[in-house]
Amino acid sequence: MRRELPTPHFSEHAKAWILDPQVVFLNHGSYGACPQRVLEYQRHIQEQMEREPLRFMGTELEPMLDQARIDLAGFLNADHEGLAFVHNATTAVNAVFRSIEFQPGDEVLTNNHEYNACNNALRWVVGRACGGQVRINTASVPFPLNSPDEVVNAILDAVTPKTRLVMISHVTSPTALIFPVERLIRELSSRGIETLIDGAHAPGMIPLDLKSLAATYYVGNCHKWMCSPKGAGFLYIHDEARRPQISPVVISHGLNSTRTDRSRFRLLFDWTGTDDYTAWLSVPEAIRAVSSMLPGGWPAVMQANHRKVLAGRDTLLRVLGGNAPAPDSMLGSLATIPLPDAIHAEGQPDEQLKTLYDEHKVRVPLISWPKHPKRWVRLSAQLYNDPSQYEYAAAVLKQLLS
């Protein structure tokens, strides 16, 4: 006989979002969720654009983008001249890989926790644009693990004298780990090795100081933990001398512009054709909106979400059994919990996931890692989540897995 499931509730902060009250949304990490105040701000700019498109695109857009970029740079502690808006972190990764002039014999190092889309971009460039003369190496980082030292050792042990570039996630997508990128960047830079940090999850989840971090390239999303509208990401290039060497995925008028009041980097990235730029322009409002939700501003938001995901993780471990696969210090607002192996064949629909979504309305990803049938459940924590939602998700998973 099945036990009665607990009743899930949203937190008091949920009123700032327009999330479906019938859905237990524990998957902020995949696509984010934009507060209503920010959506209304974006709609206001869209109406401004549509009232007089020529004036908006030709006269108003550029200074608005400049200010939005300055505001984002302040949030990231970055040099605004080295910062460019893009649609998402994957776009920025593609721009970097396609722009680097790899030489035959160069090696690029990734690792087994990296995001599939970014690894695919690397494989495409190496296999097609570089004629297969550049080698991809993959470091094997253990998981579960007990210390950031295990990450550092695994990645540095995979470096060779031919390593040109290392791609590392700041926060890994499948395993939800904060990688010790500060230590890795320092060590790799001392060896003359470039670094591409995939910070898709980091902005708004953990404090960032991109000037001090000094990665060669840093990419990130604003639509995840910063809660901007979808389609807002960025590329940051620390070294001014490198900026002219990187081009956007889409080349437009900036390539042969005769303007001298703006850098080549600005001219190439700030206009890639007619588009809806309002997600980028709404980033400062997202920064203000989320900061206003707790008295302590962004530091308090990050701390609250960190505590919440730890409590949610512990709830699932208590109900489902098992041990925490990583120390608390390596988690931000995401956590993964091991589950029993998948019972469906590889490539076939996961009926347990379908029941979780369709019948119980729990939105949480079940992730195969490192490959099928091994799987994990990845929890997110945002201000709108309530402890009762994790209790409910744990009870549903217990029921489905029994």
Number of strands: 12
Radius of gyration: 22 Å
Counting H and I runs of at least 4 residues, what is the number of helices?
Answer: 14
Distance from N terminus to C terminus (CA atoms, Å) equals 12 Å
The CATH topology of the largest domain corresponds to Aspartate Aminotransferase, domain 2
Structural class: alpha/beta
* DSSP strand content: 5-15%
- Main sheet summary: 7 strands, mixed
Overall spatial form: globular
The largest sheet has its strands arranged as 2-8-7-6-5-3-4
Give the integer mean of the pLDDT values: 96
In CATH, the homologous superfamily of the largest domain goes by the name Type I PLP-dependent aspartate aminotransferase-like (Major domain)
CATH architecture of the largest domain: 3-Layer(aba) Sandwich
Number of domains: 2
Written as H for each helix and E for each strand, in order along the chain, the element string is EHHHEHEHEHEHEHEEHHHHEHEEEH
Low-confidence stretches: none
Helix share, percent: 25-40%
CATH class identity of the largest domain? Alpha Beta
Structural commentary:
The protein has 402 residues and is α/β, with parallel strands linked by helices. The protein is built from 14 helices and twelve strands. Strands 2-8-7-6-5-3-4 form a seven-stranded mixed sheet, sandwiched between helices. A three-stranded antiparallel sheet has the order 9-12-11, covered by helices on one side. The N and C termini lie close together (12 Å).
SSE layout:
Blueprint lengths: L23 E2 L2 H4 L4 H16 L1 H24 L6 E4 L2 H11 L7 E5 L4 H14 L5 E5 L8 H10 L5 E7 L11 H10 L3 E6 L10 H4 L3 E5 L11 E5 L26 H6 L8 H4 L1 H9 L5 H24 L13 E6 L11 H8 L3 E2 L2 E3 L6 E6 L6 H15 L1
Parallel strand pairs: 1-10, 3-4, 3-5, 5-6, 6-7
Antiparallel strand pairs: 2-8, 7-8, 9-12, 11-12
